């Protein structure tokens, strides 16, 4: 039997050490990886890592991701049959696409354009929408000064406009469904959780709203959107 070699197994033991191990929580960042795994048909074992310091700042998790953020993976069957550990969702999805040969074109031009949109999500939509959530729904919403809140509302509107324009006349970010969609759509959907659809004008964007609905109608997405399951 394959033996995983990593400190994290002391806190989250692997029942199936021969499978890819996912350490995650069903946030927009976390479900990117479970969606990719389901879409690509890669067998995996999921471990719930809560967002509390007791988990993400534990020595075992920090040994896998020193940046103390989910998601992270260990693949015991990595390149050349060697174990590989990865964090950062964009890096993980590129790796999984290459491992499976799915959802990332082998054509160099299309490949790099797809990666471009992966980076757009990582550098723009993810951090900006996350800040919007903090200042609109969570602790930052208590601030009387509206400067930060307005800044992230306006930036979210700008980013949504970029996606709306990109989707004009197309079903997906690229010509075909790809890892770029797995990166972007969960974060667009997060505006519902933040209660920020109205304030960002989300509902007036015909391309974006149809795109998110189309994405969540996919069977693999429906299966993966709560993996690992949230604690009740």
UniProtKB/TrEMBL annotation:
Q: Name one Pfam family in it.
A: GST_N
Sorted alphabetically, which InterPro entries does this protein's record hold? Glutathione-S-Trfase_C-like, Glutathione-S-Trfase_C_sf, Glutathione_S-Trfase, Glutathione_S-Trfase_N, GST_C, Thioredoxin-like_sf
Molecular function (GO) terms for this protein are: transferase activity
Q: Which residues form the GST C-terminal domain?
A: 107-232
Is-annotated flag, keyword Transferase? yes
Entry's PROSITE patterns? GST_CTER, GST_NTER
Name of the protein in question: Glutathione S-transferase
Name its species.
Celeribacter neptunius
